[in-house]
Design goal:
Elements: E1 10-11, E2 14-15, H1 16-36, E3 44-52, E4 55-63, E5 71-73, E6 91-92, E7 101-108, E8 114-118, E9 127-138, E10 149-160, E11 165-178, E12 204-207, E13 215-220, E14 226-228, E15 234-237
Parallel strand pairs: 11-14
Antiparallel strand pairs: 1-2, 3-4, 3-7, 4-5, 4-6, 7-8, 9-10, 9-13, 10-11, 12-15, 13-14
Length: 239
């Protein structure tokens, strides 16, 4: 049940703020009893909806019985939202990524706040997913011989027919870096191994960002950064 919240009043040493704190604690206990009644395990799959610093909002989800990597929100399931506060009972952790599905376990902060922690696996990476490149912003700190971009990417849904396949962007924006752009260009080797024709005079090659609309396979590192690796194209100017 929901208790009233008082803004003034007292009876001896019993003040309105003491009553409010007592009611809050009772409501949290009732919520936990309702959530975990008949639950055989305390870990459960959840979809991260949004991230703010080290906090994540989420809803409990269940897997499809027929479609891989398909998740549906559980009616009356566990969620982080209370009223308008989407981080009332948040995930607390690093490297959280919106739209990803993780396994959570409940915990209590020292002040009694109900929080959730991601159940970590043994893999060095936390997530692998396909995405489509929607934008590229040049990094001002990268030099002319090691041009790099910060890519905006989005997950997508695929429609396949007997004659075509199309992609529709979905979910929120994510960001990623291209591992191939870690290489520095020289006069003889470009990108991951492109060698210009040096006879009689070498052309000028300028590294270009990955084309918008390209589908990439991303890996999320424990730090929360997303990476893919695709060799860049080059703009060629003949002498």
């Amino acid at each position: 049940m929901t208790f009233p919240q008082f803004i003034s009043g007292s009876d001896g040493r019993l003040t309105f703020s003491t009553l409010n704190e007592t009611f809050d604690r009772i409501e949290r206990l009732e919520r936990r009893e309702s959530i975990y009644r008949n639950r055989q395990t305390e870990s459960f799959p959840a979809k991260i909806l949004s991230v703010s610093g080290s906090l994540g909002s989420f809803v409990e989800v269940a897997p499809s019985a027929t479609q891989p990597n398909s998740w549906t929100e559980v009616p009356q399931g566990i969620r982080s939202t209370d009223g308008t506060n989407v981080f009332a009972f948040p995930i607390v952790g690093s490297g959280l990524s919106a739209d990803s599905v993780v396994f959570l376990t409940p915990a209590n902060a020292p002040d009694g706040t109900e929080i959730y922690l991601v159940v970590q696996g043994q893999s060095a990476t936390s997530n692998t997913f396909a995405a489509i490149v929607t934008a590229a912003a040049a990094l001002s700190g990268s030099g002319a011989t090691r041009k790099a971009w910060k890519y905006t990417i989005r997950r997508f849904t695929t429609t396949e027919t007997s004659t075509n396949v199309t992609y529709a962007e979905t979910g929120s924006n994510l960001f990623a870096y291209n591992g191939c752009e870690n290489n520095t260009d020289s006069t003889t080797v470009f990108g991951v191994g492109l060698k210009p024709d040096v006879t009689p005079t070498a052309p000028t090659l300028v590294r270009q960002p990955i084309k918008i609309g390209t589908v990439v396979l991303c890996v999320t590192e424990p730090s929360g950064l997303n990476f893919f690796s695709i060799p860049n194209g080059y703009e060629v100017t003949c002498p």
